[in-house]
Amino acid sequence: MTEVEKPILNLRNLSKTFGDFTALANIGLTVQPGEFVTVVGPSGCGKSTLFNILAGLEEADGGSTIRFEDRSVMSKDLLGKVSFMPQRDLLLLWRNVIDNAILPLEMEGANRADARKEAERMLPEFGLAGFADKFPHELSGGMRQRVALMRTFMFKRDLMLLDEPFGALDALTRTMMQRWLLDVWQKHKRTVLFITHDVDEAIFLGDRVLVMSSRPGSIKIERKVDLPRPRGAELLTSPEFVALKRDLLTAIEEESMKTFGPANGQK
Ligand code: ADP
Ligand code: MG
Question: Where in the chain is the domain with CATH 3.40.50.300?
Answer without folding.
Answer: 1-82+158-261
